[in-house]
User: Fold this.
Amino acid sequence: MDDSVIIKTDKLTKRFHVGTGEFTALHGITLSFGKGEFAGLVGPSGSGKTTLLNIIGTLDYPSEGSVEVIGQSVSGLTNKQAAHLRNYNIGFIFQTYNLLPVYSVYENVEFALLLQNRTAGVRRKAVMEALDWVGLTDKQNSKPSQLSGGECQRVAIARAMVKRPLLVLADEPSANLDAKNSHNIVQTMKRLNKELNTTFIFATHDEKVMQYLDRIITLKDGTVESDKLILNTEI
Assistant:
């Protein structure tokens, strides 16, 4: 794979068993993503966005075709190898935040580094830097229940970015936020994309997110309907 290309899918097909039959969620998807892209998979519910995002994130495997992520074939990875790739190179941001309620903001962000067995000093520096990126250093000792929805999502961004991954996958990150918080969240991710050259790929049908994207890939019934580069001045 070209060094500038970190994701490549070739004729990717994904089928799920439903009862006694099968449902094909993705039909022969061929795409590539380069370093530093800020791209979105858009389309209605059931179009295949989340399925494609999960396979790129090594949370699932293709039924047919090939997927390479950061130089590794997803189909050839064991569960342990896939977990290692995620732990070191891929950050995830979900619409429901997925924060650990009994842990503080600091501990939620630190968790990603504990999986890497980093030393306490390295963890401390990285966590405080990540919290500074999202403007939450003053909330480091708060629990998720003490935060607003927008603040919880900023913690989720810090947790995804603290290990400085090459790739961040965001699945409907603005779905539970109002308009103002949606814009703030996406602006934060856009800024980190530019500053750290991290590739961001969204699954979304939110117009508020789409206006910040540099590339929009429209999915319909598990196929690529269009793939457009956007001249984008938003930040």
Summary: Residues 5-97+146-229 form a domain with the Rossmann fold fold (CATH 3.40.50.300). DSSP finds seven helices and ten strands in the chain. Residues 76 and 82 are 9 Å apart (CA to CA).
